[in-house]
Predict the 3D structure of the following.
Amino acid sequence: MTQHFSADVLICGAGAAGLTLAIDLARRGVSFRLIEKMEGPFRGSRGKGIQPRTQEVFEDLGIVDRVVAAGGLYPPQREYRADGSYTDSLIMAHEAPTPAEPYHLPLLVPQFLTEGVMRERLAELGHRPTYGCELVGFAQDEHGVTVRLASPTGEEVVRVRYLVGADGGRSFVRHALGIDFPGKTLGVRAVVADVALTGLGREVWHRFNEGAMDAQMSLCPLAGTDLFQLQAPIPREGDIDLSAEGLSTMVAQRTGRDDIRIHSVLWASAFSMNARLADRYRVGRSFLIGDAAHVHPPTGGQGLNTSVQDAYNLGWKLAAVVGGAPETLLDSYEEERRPVAADMLGLATKLLDAAKRGDTRRGREVHQLDIGYPESPLALEQPERISGLLAGDRAPDAPIMGAAGQRTRLFELFKGAHWTLLGYEVLRDAVTPRSGLHIHTFGAHGDLFDHGGHFREAYAPASGDWMLIRPDGYVGAIVASGDIEVLERYLQTVGLAVDGSPS
């Protein structure tokens, strides 16, 4: 029976995760609808740290420069003592970029500005979120998902191939699928608010009473705005006055100063910190991404970044299957991303414990550059390869030179919706060209030169190696020239058969 679908994918939730997925699907030509039950965009600063790995993702999506321009760098932190004296230090480790890791910016961008840039990019691709539209029910079968949507104009029933829940920690999609959300409440309740204030300079992140959980107060200037983000632990029970007057009183009590005055509150939330992880990321044709799949304390700036990368992982796989790749490719989404979230929850909880003691420093552990998928079913490599770059690793960047003499970077070659195959001292015609695969070779008659030796340093290739880079910038396969048939079988599993039409 012929199926009629109004879209290939329905994305429920237009936050950072949903917007990332929408951008990725849009540039791949996959039809989708992006809905959000709120009447307009989220206006808060909640997720403000953009980690180096996410900066790489944003480069591929075409927004990294705009995101950096919208925000700024993490300021030094200033810890005040009881006598009014203070010490300044860096909260984020400042590391110089390297050829393999071009982004080490300690980047601070309020979430509403990041999402604004993402909506602009989505509009360039011809799409916009639909606000005030709520998913109120759905049923799925082996061919698709029938969904019921409610909006001010009434209710509609539509048919889609796949449903993605990007609808936050209280996810309707997760509840409707019956997916358990085990974890624990961490015994910490806090207030976070975006406020306009006077009495403090914007050159540092002001911290008071570090290590005293009942009296801590943090006031961080929000880059790209005239606002500060207020953060403070609060009692586990009882109402909190989130008005400008109420928060001014809290600031005065905790800082001992009467010159800091909050004039307006643009957004505020009082919340209890939890660490929870969905038992499953997929049921049939329905998926969870972002906070719908994992919630955690905000320490370490991991949440928005993990959510963006969930979507970045799922997007190319949905597109590939819509384009004809085997449905089993979608199984790898949960297999790859759920362990990452489990590790992230552990890290965020550890950093919360450190913050309770007054230690707020952050290092490489929060950068997410070392995340990989070595145990993934999509990681194929030569059994004898025991060192250097391995399948499942993040594919490093490297400055290189084209045969025509122009300098470029590997990330420029990777950018876009395609796969990239790099051959080192190989016969180029050993692999048949096909749609969705860009082939480049180093060596005699190759189109690339390893100018400066950075490719060899980062990839440690052996003569005759072929290295296949996934659309999301991870190494899919490493094979020798004698194993081209193995590579061909792999390409078929991801929808890149010679006579196929990859997404």
Summary: Residues 324 and 495 are 6 Å apart (CA to CA). The chain has eleven helices and 27 strands. Residues 331-356 form the longest helix (26 residues).
